[in-house]
Amino acid sequence: MTVNQPTIIITGAAGFIGSALAWRLNERGRNRLLLVDHLAETEKWKNLVPLAYQDYMEKSVFLADLEAGRLDGMEVEAVFHFGACSATTEIDASYLIRNNFDYSKTLARWCLERPKPIRFIYASSAATYGSGEQGYRDDHTVLSTLRPLNAYGFSKFIFDSWCQKQGYLDQVVGLKFFNVYGPNEYHKGEMRSMVVKAFEQIRNAGRVDLFKSHRKDYQDGEQLRDFIYVKDAVDMALFFLGGATAGETAHAGGSTSSGIFNIGTGVARTWVDLAQALFRSMGRDPKIEFVPMPEGMRGKYQYFTRADISKLRAVGYSAKISTLEEGVADFLPYLEKGPLPLGWA
Hints:
By secondary structure, this protein is an alpha/beta fold. 34% of the residues lie in helices and 16% in strands. The protein has 11 helices and 13 strands. It has helices at residues 16-27, 59-67, 93-112, 151-166, 194-205, 230-239, 243-246, 271-282, 295-298, 310-314, 324-336; strands at residues 7-11, 33-37, 55-58, 76-81, 119-125, 173-177, 179-181, 208-211, 224-225, 227-229, 259-263, 269-270, 288-291. The strands form 4 sheets. The protein has a 7-stranded parallel sheet, with helices on both faces. Helix 3 links the parallel strand 4 and strand 5. It is globular and about 60 Å long.
């Protein structure tokens, strides 16, 4: 670790995308990290084991120190705020407001209302787009037209809107993550990606169960998603450190642009595509069965998502993005050997 590196703070650092981000920073020689999370009675602590970092703080301690001014003297390059309740099935909207909205406002103000503002990059979500009737353009001028379908999407939507009303969107970066999959998501229970669930189904039963379609314009299993591999997702996030800010050749060409950006591949694939990619990587013949979608999900289900990444490309992100088949093939060894988190071996 270079002694004069400023600190990078990552909230949600033991979670899926946060821990993958820390792993990628370690790969780039950045170890001066303050990791923040709420571990509770979960297995996500395992994601922290292989990482190199300066310190870890529980969310409650971090917030108390933040509000008391005890962190004001720290030299901080950027805050990646990925800490949130990410369960799309969570129905306690007040809980989501506390965790996803109030927490975010506190941290944004701390970063921006300083004599020298700190780069603030936060996780929004494609869930803010709702059914997608208004499209998937990451243009902040269409924020008021979006209609999220669940409380989680609403909690992310109102923080995006709050940033806009505060005039912060020309200073912060909001990342609308689409369907992210990959190592380090194992602790997420029912919120794990279908890649993990399908792997377990194939290993245990030799088949994959997919939801039937309840719309005439989509065949069973032909519902569409923009699936993005977590390694690509964190590379896109780190791009917004900016080359000059990061001070490293690994970040050369990075962007200091601000605003809301979609994090996806720009390609919509079906659930059948995903299952077939996994069967192929595992060397097995496909066996897919279709099951009814639970009644409670049918009115909140997205049948089509596809990130418009033209804005991301326009600010200079030119890296190749993994196809679904490439991402699944890269992910499979982590599933077969453990499952293992990034950096374990």
